[in-house]
Amino acid sequence: MGPRQRLLLLLLVSATLRTGAVGVMEMMSARPAPEASALALFGRLGNAALGVAATYLVLRLARRVVDRRSAWAAAWIHAVLPTSLFFAASLRAEPVVVALMLLTVETVLVAGGSPPGRPRLLRVVAAAVFLCLLVPAFRMMASWGAEPWPGSAGAVDTVVGFLDRLRTVWAADLAPTRHAAAVLHHPVPIWAGAGRWLVQVALWLGVTSLAVKGLLRREAWGSRRALLIPVGLGSLAAAWFGAGPEAHHPLLALLLPAAGAGWAHRGEPMSTTRQLRAAAVMGGVAWLTTSSLAGIIETRLMPSAWTRPWVEPVARIAGADPVYADLVEVRCSREAGGVIVDASPEEPTAFLPGGGERTYLVGAGVPHAKGLLILKNGPSGSDVVIDPVDADWWGRWRPLDDFGLPGVEIRWLGGGPNRSGIAEFRDLV
Q1: Which end of the chain has fewer CB atoms < 10 Å from its terminal CB, N or C?
Q2: Distance (Å, rounded) from C-alpha 14 to C-alpha 11?
Q3: CA-CA distance, 117 to 106, in Å (whole number)?
Q4: pTM (2 decimals)?
Q5: 362 CB contacts (<8 Å, ≥6 apart)?
Q6: Which DSSP state fits 142?
Q7: Chain-centre distance for alpha carbon 77
Q8: What is the pLDDT of residues 135-148, one digit of tens each?
Q9: Quick one: which of 387, 425, 394, 419 has its CA closest to 188?
């Protein structure tokens, strides 16, 4: 197979996987209106196209810093990596940042290796333009859901907080798993949810270990290790903005040439010194993966209560107390007269009149942290605590006569943190 055929196959696989990921994300996303649905689909397809372009850009960048076999391996890793597929099918800014970062770094490398003259000047100008586009895009990406700096932190607390943020930036790459656990549309098997999490952690450790091996190869001196400069600067910037672990996705793309070298030369023996260095670095990566789980589970996960069987054991090991959230629809017949609904501290206790129907976000508080719904018949009635998450009643109206609430029904619609602003979900069921 010639180079053109290999490139065509690579891009075809990359496009097919990303198009399929768009379809999956569309099925997992609520559609409040046809116009919003069409706009979201257009945005996802645009990001998917950027993801395919990024696969080609990884190949171009890798060819400048590693051998041809390693470059192809790096491009294939990007083409099939689940995290790349997830962001390429999302409505987030990561695909834009990845493409701009790869363009900027490659243009800088080409300009640095060009002789003085007009072509070099044009490449410098192009790199400056790409950088001007990259900085605001990176800041927007890193600031999404960022934790604000405390107002009156001392110097020591600021340094400690910054290092903790840096650790969070390079935590295990769990964005697809976190999204699937939070925006749960149907009761997936427990083994599937737990297996997805384990696969994500294994892939994260695998890619980083390949990158470490590639960086420690004897031939790695020069441009390949120069890629650590933008990776380091990007890590510091992401930590300063308080970004989450998804912010290292564009930075990891810059390390894929090294990962490709690690894979292409995986059978190459390493000296004892390099083995010790690799073990030390991977020990640090493993520490990042485990030590940062508590904060991620408590502040950035917020899964559906359906995931409790596999989230709780991990949370106990990490010393975290997870908060669950689900969307539950409540309706009350006219004969019942009404019911008082206490869904979460974010939604004040409210009276749902007879004949009324409303969707609530259940969770984010105690006792709501475990995904429990509290109802009562009138101000003088007793609290009735109900666990609405039941696979037998997913998408179906569940009468609460046995709970002493005749005429009241609930319907579990799945996880809800990312969909709490949408009022109607009947098209999902």
Answers
A1: N
A2: 5
A3: 18
A4: 0.82
A5: 325, 326, 327, 328, 343, 344, 368, 371, 372, 373, 388, 416
A6: H
A7: 18
A8: 999 988 888 766 66
A9: 394
